[in-house]
Amino acid sequence: MRKLSSLAKFSLALPAGQMLVSDMAKYDPDLSLLFHALADPTRRSILNRLAEGPARVTDLAGPTGLRLPTVMRHLSVLEEAGLIATSKDGRIRTCAIVPEALDPVRTWLDEQRAIWEARLDRLDAFVMNVMKERTK
């Protein structure tokens, strides 16, 4: 028996005329910014608080236990991702959530759910077919 190279072991044989398209072609840098911003628990807790309504930076900093400059860095990440908007009135900076900024995340998750549901449906059909043939 001929030994296959490690590359050949993992190649995908497709029927003639079909192509495999990489998902990297769909790479969205804005989506990466959103997931980066959502990856941190402190930033998620700030967003949870802002879901109740706009808040001053000092009010957001209090429950975190972090120093103000650290909270400001978290807020800048959220603002860069478009998840919050800030305004300044005198010396008071207020933050508000931008709910529609989560739409690209929701869209991506819905697409992933559809892809995986279809894959699992095909796997289920395959397994059921194999089980039927074994019982014959």
The count of domains is 1
Secondary structure tally: strands:
3
How far from one another are the termini? 32 Å
Q: How much helix is in the residues? A: 55-70%
- The number of helical runs is 6
List low-pLDDT spans. Answer: 1-14, 19-25
User: What spatial form do the alpha-carbon principal axes imply?
Assistant: elongated
Instruction: Give the CATH architecture.
Output: Orthogonal Bundle
CATH topology: Arc Repressor Mutant, subunit A
Radius of gyration: 24 Å
**Proportion of residues in β-strands:** 5-15%
What does this structure look like?
The chain has helices at residues 6-9, 29-38, 41-50, 57-61, 68-80, 103-135; strands at 55-56, 84-89, 92-97. It is mainly alpha-helical. The protein has one domain: Arc Repressor Mutant, subunit A (Orthogonal Bundle). Helix 2 (29-38) packs antiparallel against helix 5. It is elongated, with a radius of gyration of 24 Å.
